Amino acid sequence: MPALKTVAAAVLIAAGSVAMAAASPETYEQYRQPGLDKPVIRQADILPLVDRLRESELVDVKEIGRSYEGRPIFRLQVGSGPMRVMMWSQMHGDEPTATPAIFDLVNFITAPEQAKWRAGWMDEITLVMVPMLNPDGAERNSRHNAQSFDVNRDAKALQSPEGRVLMGLAKEFDPHFGFNLHDQDRHYGVGDTGKMATISVLAPAYNRAREVNDSRAGAMKLIGVLTAAIEPFIGGHIARYDDTYAYRAFGDTFSEMGISTILIESGAHPADPNRQVARRMNFEMLVSAIDSIATGSYRDTPLARYEAIPFNEDDAIVDIKITGLRAGEGDTGYVTDLAINQRTGGAQVVDAGDLSNLAGAQTLDASQWQYQPPRPFQLDGDPILMLDDSRYRELLEDGYGYFVGDPARLRVDTELPVAINPRNPQRQRPLRRRDATFLLRDEAGVRVAVINGEVIELYQQPSATGQKAR
Length: 470
Ligand SMILES: [Zn+2]
Prior knowledge:
Low-confidence stretches: 1-20, 461-470
Helix content: 10-25%
Radius of gyration: 25 Å
Strand order of the largest sheet: 2-3-5-4-6-10-8-9
Number of domains: 2
Bound molecules: zinc ion
Strand content: 25-35%
Mean pLDDT: 92
C-alpha cells in the first residue's frame, strides 16, 4: 500500500469542558464567517463585512487612517468599560489567519442569543479591533507594506502610515491589553516533540534584561488562561517564543509603554492548509480573554503556567520526510532519511542522514526502496512529445525524472508535477540543496517518483496521485 500519509488528522475534541461563556465547540460553526477559508485574504474580502457592521448598534466602525497606497484602515469598537483592550491583525500582509478570527469574534459578540453574555462584560471592557492593519501587503500577499517596510520593525521610526496608525491608536486609546496577531512559518515545532506549533504565544520583553514588571506579568498570566482554554482542542501544539528583546518591534515597544502585550502566532496543523484550526483557536482565545479580563480572573493565574509552555523550535517540521531510504551501491551502500521543503525556487532536499530529530508534515516510509538518480529526457525530436498521464508514467518507470531542452517540444497534458530544465538536478546519491526530483525503486523497478517535492506512486495505476505539501 502507499506509504504516504500525514502525521495525524486534524481532530478537534468536541468536549464541552472549556470554561468559557457560550462558545462551546458545538456552536462555533454558526459564528464562523463564511468566505474566509482561503490562503490569501485581501481587503476586498473584508470590506463588505466592515460595511455591514456599520448598521450594527453594538459595533462602532471608524476609519482611523490610510495605508501608503490609500487603502482605509478601520477599527471596530465594542463596549464602553474602563478596561481597554486592543487587537490588530495582518500587520504582515501575508499572515491573514487572525483576520477571519476577528470577524468570527464580532459575529459571536453581536449574535442576539449572546445578549446576556455580552451584557456581562460590555460595561467592564472597551474592545477595539483592527482587522488587517496592512492592506497593501495583503493585496500583494506580502509581509511588507507598499514601501517594502516590515511594519513590525517601524515602531520607533514610524515612517510607515500603517505603523503611525497603530501607534496613534495605542496612544489615543491607551489600552491595558494589546493583542498582536500574526502567522508563523509552517516549519515551527513544539520543542522536540515533532508536533507542529499551531499556536505560539509571547509576552514580549520591554528591555534587554527581559525583566517582568506588573504589566508584563499581567500578559503572562492572561496567556496562561488562554492556552489553558485551547489545551482541550490542540494540546501538544502550543508553544511560546523566546523573549529576546526586539527594539524596533511593536509588541516590545507597547510592552515598554506599559501595555500588557500578547503576541499570538497562528501556525500550521496537520491537514489544515488554510490554518482553520489556528483561526478557531484565535477565536477561542479571544473570547476567553474577554471573559478573563472582565472578571479579573487572570490575576490569580500562576506565572508558572506561562513558563511551562514549551519553546518553539525552528525548522523542526519539514514539508516531506522520507525515512529509511537505501542509497549508494554495494560496499558504499547506506541508509538515509531525506528532508524536503518547498522553497521559492522549487522543492529542495534540505537535509540527509539520520533525521530522527525532524518531523514531516508528510512522511514517506521508503525502507523498502533504493534511491535511483533521475535520467534527463532530451526534448529535441519530432514530433512534439505529448505528455499525458500514461505516457508520463511510462517515462518515469523507464527512469526518466525530468526534461531538458526546448520546452516548446513538450505538450504537458497531465496534472502530475513535471520538472523541465531543472537548475540543480540530483546526481548519483541524493544530496542537499539539490532538487527534490528523483526516483525510488525495488527489484521489480521504479515504484515511486518524487518530482518537484511531490510524490507519485507508480505501482498502483491509475488511482495514485501526487500530493502537494503546502
Ligand atoms: Zn508577522
